[in-house]
Amino acid sequence: MEIYLIADMHFGHKNIINMSKRPFTSIMENDLTIMKNWNKTVTNLDKVFVLGDVSFYGKGQTKQIVRSLNGEKILLLGNHDTSKSNKWWMDVGFKDVIERPFILNTKREFKINMEKLFVLSHMPITNVCIGDLLNVHGHIHDKEIGETLNKHFNVSVENIDYTPISIKEILKMELM
User: Fold this and answer.
1) Alpha carbon distance 121, 102 (integer Å)
2) Strand runs (DSSP E) across 128-174, as ranges?
3) Using the 8-state DSSP alphabet, how is residue 159 labeled?
4) Are strands 165-166 and 3-6 parallel, antiparallel or unpaired?
5) Do residues 41 and 79 touch, judged by C-beta distance below 8 A?
6) What span, in angstroms and rounded, lies between the C-alpha atoms of 54 and 34?
7) Please, which residues bridge with residue 114 across strands?
8) What pLDDT, in 10s, does the model give residues 25-44?
């Protein structure tokens, strides 16, 4: 089992292509590319933490997309997801829905040999010093955070080649 992270897919959001300078000619190309990359990377034995901003489609199309994606999916609500209830998100295919940032311990929770604490959030946490924790987030798409007291890793799709990234890959980059 691998643990993956991704944020800001924005399925069905036509304006995201221009707003975030995505290299797609249509929202269909955007959606299909992310779905294809996801299923080439993630198996059904894996777990994926989606750090917000999933879909602008209605329930039927969102359900079709989410259920077509491999792995056990856990949603941490993003600013574009909160208009729907937790039940709505679980109905479309998420195993769990989380409403606020939370901490993952890689050694204890995922049996990864190295202990590292990740604070998962949709928006970057910039107003609190969190020591040696790594804040893994989305929300800012292809923008830089700037100088802060925290360490950050942005998993908005624009920064991870429109493909979920594993915790092990993030750890490798973090240690370089």
Assistant:
1) 7
2) 134-137, 151-154, 165-166
3) G
4) antiparallel
5) no
6) 11
7) none
8) 999 999 999 999 999 999 99
Q: State the amino acid at position 130 in one-letter form.
A: I
DSSP H helical ranges for 69-160? 86-92, 106-110
- Both tokens of 94, joined, read 């998420």
Global confidence as pTM: 0.90
pLDDT tens track for 90-113: 999 999 999 998 877 665 555 555
Residue 111 structure tokens: 């049996």
β-pairing verdict for 117-120 and 102-105 = antiparallel
**Token pair of 91, please?**
């109905």
CA distance 34 to 50: 13
CA–CA distance, 8 with 10 (Å, rounded to integer): 5
The Cα–Cα gap between 128 and 149 comes to: 8
Tokens 């973090």 — which residue? 174
Separation between Cα atoms, residue 24 and residue 149, nearest integer Å: 35
- Angle between helical axes of 59-68 and 27-41 (0-180°, round to 10): 30
Q: Tokens standing for 110?
A: 């995922």
Exposed, middle or buried by CB within 10 Å (0-12, 13-18, 19+), for 21? Answer: exposed
Q: For residue 38, give the 3-state DSSP assignment.
A: helix
